[in-house]
């Protein structure tokens, strides 16, 4: 029988100095933490890793405590739990024997982990006689515990949350960043970010959560090659991302920096949390940081200060920062993605509605018991949320364009932006109505036709001779105008032949609709400098408004991308023409 005796010179001397007989192959190892070993889990994991490396034992013997100064710390229970919960050492099901004068009842009473002593494969003895001990271990059932007995152990034991991880929030953060980095993302040809996880993976509570709530199988390289997630987020190259999270130093900062580098985007991290202990001061500094960067997406954790975990300390800091980002007076179209370790999904959904966030992504927690595919799905949801926010950031640019111009309070443009922010196909018809209304307010009401020869800008000296310069093509059946084009000079007339259905536009009272259309297209072309191709876009949008949207009541086939192209090519030029001092 191969026996491992762990001690700190606090077992009877004979156990160490004398032979145990021919039937026992003894290995004695000292577990002696120094004053510098402030993190006991790291120390124990390092020592046991050394001891078990390349060795297999049939029985492990240890005292209730390894402490030289406080014997009722019962650190022996911690060591035994590490052995049970660390599969890589290959001793999770080996029998463990506690030796010492302590009464089991007293240990259970004083230690949070005392229930371990009543779990399968755990034995105790108060003997201080080597001969009695050797005889006793020969009578022990030294077979490995079964799988069902191991589950019984998991159900009986209680591993307290470490004091430096007072909340679910902190544990979920470290769990998720390690899970994504090491297990889920298939880095392929990309360099893996260098993140130290030793503190977390050595933590007894972490090991317990894996065994208790995960039963997580190790993820093979082959699985990652075939099923792991691609770190690259397509479609965000050149975008700016602001990341605000007090846990960024736990590895999130390095991981996200790498992901966004691969994706061609820039990441800006707020990293001054330690400088501001006061919550109000912290919020002020974060909002100043936010306003200093014209970002396409703001990744925001919600609990950024210790006071946020106390319900009596007012609104949580993340809500207040999000409210600032979405402030109507600043730019309500800025895109916020909540990226938090909240363990209450319904709370997150309420937060999205309250804040007006684009989306939310939950950082995976060990308690969630995610499968590998669940974790991949979680990461892909993160990618989708960021991409969606970046795709919608053009609306923020539109509001910035309107700011300080004569169109800042334009009802149709503001209404269009607010509807587009919903990013729902159900609002596309209303978006079309608002864009048409804007054109009519400017290209129709702002101009007049005089003497059938000139188009004139109301309230200015600008006018343009349009005699024989506006051509129309009509439907042969009902005479409705199908399209209108403007000429730069008469030399172009040769291309607009009567045999092809072209004729000069008519402006008399019997052709009021034709006159109105001609006036709007002429103002767009001659005054605002809109190209023939883009004037055709307006005519198509007008036709869509008059048919599908207004009369037929069916959902338009146009997409938000089409309306964005219309805004960029036509609306923007109108705004800049009317506000020459505005920088685009």
Topology:
Layout lengths: L1 E6 L5 H5 L7 E6 L9 H13 L6 E5 L11 H11 L10 E4 L4 H7 L11 E4 L4 H10 L7 H10 L11 H17 L13 H5 L1 H11 L6 H7 L12 E5 L7 H11 L3 E4 L9 H13 L5 E4 L16 H9 L10 E5 L4 H11 L3 E4 L9 H21 L1 H9 L8 H11 L6 H17 L2 E4 L3 E4 L5 E3 L4 E5 L6 E6 L15 E3 L7 H16 L4 H21 L7 H19 L6
Parallel strand pairs: 1-2, 1-3, 3-4, 4-5, 6-7, 6-8, 8-9, 9-10
Antiparallel strand pairs: 11-12, 12-13, 14-15, 14-16
Helix pairs in contact: 2-3, 3-9, 7-15, 12-13, 17-18, 18-19, 18-20, 18-21
Q: What can you tell me about this protein's structure?
A:
This protein is 43% helix and 12% strand. The chain is an alpha/beta fold. A five-stranded parallel beta sheet has the order 2-1-3-4-5, with no helix packed on it. Strand 4, helix 4 and strand 5 (122-125) form a beta-alpha-beta unit. Helix 3 packs across helix 9 (204-214). Mean pLDDT is 89; it is low at 215-219.
Largest sheet: 5 strands, parallel
Q: Find the count of extended strands (DSSP E, 2+ residues).
A: 16
Overall geometric form: elongated
Strand content: 5-15%
Distance between the termini: 82 Å
Q: Mean pLDDT, rounded to whole units?
A: 89
